[in-house]
TrEMBL record:
Annotated source species: Trogon melanurus
GO molecular-function terms, A-Z: phosphatidylinositol-3,4-bisphosphate binding; phosphatidylinositol-3,5-bisphosphate binding; phosphatidylinositol-3-phosphate binding; phosphatidylinositol-4,5-bisphosphate binding; phosphatidylinositol-4-phosphate binding; phosphatidylinositol-5-phosphate binding
Xref: InterPro entries: CRAL-TRIO_dom (IPR001251), Spectrin_SESTD1 (IPR056804)
Spans traversing the lipid bilayer: none
Residue span, CRAL-TRIO domain: 1-135
PROSITE patterns xrefs: CRAL_TRIO
Family annotation (PANTHER family): SEC14 DOMAIN AND SPECTRIN REPEAT-CONTAINING PROTEIN 1 (PTHR46607)
Keyword presence, Mitochondrion: no
Protein name: SESD1 protein
SUPFAM superfamilies assigned: Spectrin repeat
Keyword Secreted tagged: no
Family: Belongs to the SOLO family.
Entries under Pfam families matching the protein: CRAL_TRIO_2 (PF13716), Spectrin_SESTD1 (PF24915)
Key words of the record: Repeat
Amino acid sequence: GGKDRRSGLILTIPLCLEQTSMDELSVTLDYLLSIPSEKCKARGFTVIVDGRKSQWNVVKTVVLMLQNVVPAEVSLVCVVKPDEFWDKKVTHFCFWKEKDRLGFEVILVSANKLTRYIEPCQLTEDFGGTLTYDHMDWLNKRLVFEKFTKESTSLLDELALINNGGDKGTQQERERSIDLNFLPSVDPEMVLQTGHELLSELQQRRFNGSDGGVSWSPMDDELLAQPQVMKLLDSLREQYTRYQEVCRQRSKRTQLEEIQQKVMQVVNWLEGPGSEQLRTQWGIGDSIRASQALQQKHEEIESQHSEWFAVYVELNQQIAALLNAGEEEDLVELKALQQQLSDVCYRQASQLEFRQNLLQAALEFHSVAQDLSQQLDGLLGMLCVDVAPADGASIQQTLKLLEEKLKSVDLGLQGLREKGQSLLDQISNQASWAYGKDVTIENKENVDHIQGVMEDMQLRKQRCEDMVDVRRLKMLQMVQLFKCEEDAAQAVEWLSELLDALLKTHIRLGDDAQETKVLLEKHRKFVDVAQSTYDYGRQLLQATVVLCQSLRCTSRSSGDTLPRLNRVWKQFTITSEERVHRLETAVAFHSSAEKILQECPEQPEAFNETEQFDEIEAVGKSLLDRLTVPVVYPDGSEQYFGSPSDMASAAEHIREKMKLVSLKKQQLRQPEATTPES
């Protein structure tokens, strides 16, 4: 880094005691001499050969070698000799005599006298100078420079190849050239960082890191270090900027191609396998289980579509981002891709939704059909079971339940028709483009199935209605039958009550003939009521027989009702006849007794005969006897009128009247007894 008085560069060759390789020295000199510029070389070199630690023959060989290695720019060679060591040998070879042959001046000088030829500030401390120099530091920095120069030069060539490859030819050729280029062998960012750090070192001109003394730079402007680094950095920045743009364009094109490839993948799958899956799924099933199986299959198809729809959403977001930040030349292509992708996805989504709605409507239709079928089965089962109710109330309840079931069936059939019509409307709206083929045949099968189900349910419902009409008539007849049986039983009860009333309350015989006649008239009316009750019961039982014949069944109650009715009526008839006989006897008794008792004594001739009194007495006794005799029925049972006290009271009244008649008889006989005496 030092300079001589002519501003020529100083080249120092330190020799050592060990064997010096001339080849390595020659290579080293060639490298060192390649560093300075031609301008620096033109000013010549001053070579310092430090032979203080070497032998004379080595020094001489080195000096002679300089003639071949170092060009003519060498102006002075200073051989630093050891003190008083080579004095005897100098005579054998005088360098100054060989100046013309060598082409440069060679002087032998000791280290302390070297300052005569070179300024101390240009000499290092080894030669008594003040120039600060650290060879290892210089070597490290030189290696950094060499590495930077090599990497930057190679990188510039690579970047130029990449950049120029993208600027030539058509768009397709540029894309093909860019795709074939490799990435740079080194990281441009790292090379630029290294260059900036190196340039910073050069600009500080303190390579050795010393803060004191004279600043020294082994690669100053004269050695072209700083300008070369700056030029390389400028070129690198330019090429790297172009390379980044090329990479951006390539990345954009690659991204666009990837998006286009993914779009085509989505479109091809949706229009290919996706549409084919929907083409094969056209049925609606013939039952709930079949519709559910189709729904499960459709859910699997939807699951596969969902994966592609997720890709569609991601692609749509990427395309939207590129549209917001894209260039004008890419907008048309991006919009076309977005529109194509959206059209296919929305069309496929519409087909999936239509299919899902159709299957849901089919499931609802089959559910309503199954419920209606179960209702019809229940109604038919109820109609097939023979009616054996206990009473009319249970029949009424059964009839009400039957009507409710029939109404429920009507509502179910109406709901089935509504669901079926809605399903038919959806099928009719299924255009041929929905699955990419003509679906007329498949739709006809679905339509026939739906209409067949509705017609079958209508026929089953009609058959049930007919059976319900028959059952309703039968049950109404049974209600009437039970009503007749109940009324007939009630007639028996009424007749029994009349009989009971006749025995317990109809016991008076009257105090005179007039009253007895009134009682007799009332009794006849009472008998008329009983007769009407008996006739009413007979009519009801006859109606029961007719209804049983119509229903082809035997009544559980009419069988014993008629005997009971006849038995009670027979008892009533016997009791009534006994009552009439007693009343008629009482009328005869009272009439005869009253006639005798009311006759005047002035007409005694009317009573001359005793037959009338005897007759009255006989009737009275007969009546008294009847009061003590019970009513005997055909079954051998007996019943008394009233209580014993009641009968005793009636008998006492008759006896009183018989006593009056007897007194009347005695009165009439007394005049007859006095007449003969007189």
